[in-house]
Amino acid sequence: MRKIKSGIYGLNPLLDGGINVNSTSVVIGASGAGKTTFATQFIRRGLEEGQEGIFVSLDENKEQIIREAVEMGWTEILDYLDDEQLVFIDASGKEFATFIKKELPAFVGEWTGADARISIDPLTPVMWSTADAYEQRDLIGFMLKELRKVGTVLSTLEEHGTAGDLSGRETIIPMYLADCVMHLQYRALDDMVTRRLKIVKCRSSAHSEHSHPYHIVKGLGLVVDRGEFAPTESDAIPTQVMEELEKLGDRLPPTVHRRLLKSLEELTDQDFQDIKGAELVESILDEYARE
Ligand SMILES: Nc1ncnc2c1ncn2[C@@H]1O[C@H](COP(=O)(O)OP(=O)(O)O)[C@@H](O)[C@H]1O
Ligand SMILES: [Mg+2]
Questions:
Q1: Rounded CA gap, 223 and 207, in Å?
Q2: Stretch 109-114: mean pLDDT
Q3: Which of 60, 208, 213, 253 registers the highest number of CB atoms within 10 A of its CB?
Q4: pLDDT of 162 higher than 90
Q5: Relative to the alpha carbon of 28, which ligand is closest?
């Protein structure tokens, strides 16, 4: 799996090196969490690498996004627009839903072979373009399937209602369909503002499962504090388990024994998280061992 850099300082190590190319990600957060800033950084990072950028804005107009980007220190955005390396689309949820149904396949056809980054900010109004859950799922599923043909997709999603409750239909459906889900947990109580980022899921990546503080810094954008999370290369636990299993070889079916040893060879301590080596050996014995 090829990884591309997210453009968010501190985030890549938490994602096992970055975002998987041609994958679909969803960033969820309440108003003020930093979703638009995140989407902008993601696109900008691609432009810096020579990738094309497509920014679909569904609630702010082009001028507003550009003004905010320039305030964040990104003055070159105007050059990218002039050179058409960055394409900006602003539409309503209903207009964009119609575009997905009627024009998206032709659009994707024109962009065949592209290695673009595509941001949709936010996806929520597209979900609201229809009240029917089946249609919502069909629409978003189709959109993600088409868009990933031309690049790597990052959509933002608004978090409504009770803080941290992601069980509503308009969050559940895109979360389910996306490869990678990141939650920007933003709480503003009186004078206290806390921002924490949590990777809810990320397919094909040994990602962090902690929640990490992040900050929004003028000129830099989102900066994530990766804290304790530093991928280790140590393989003490799988080595211990392999040694135990070697000794117990005759108590396991040979095919199982071979498969387990082969799998363990690929693992590091990090894959085991809180699992104790000795306990795992016992559980394996309990599962297979012949009396
Ligand atoms: N130019 C800036 N300088 C400093 N902070 C900024 C700037 N632009 C945005 N922010 C901070 O980022 C916050 C969230 O921005 P935004 O990405 O628009 O959030 P969302 O899209 O999730 O509503 C703002 O409330 C502000 O605190
Ligand atoms: Mg926004």
A1: 17
A2: 90
A3: 208
A4: no
A5: 1
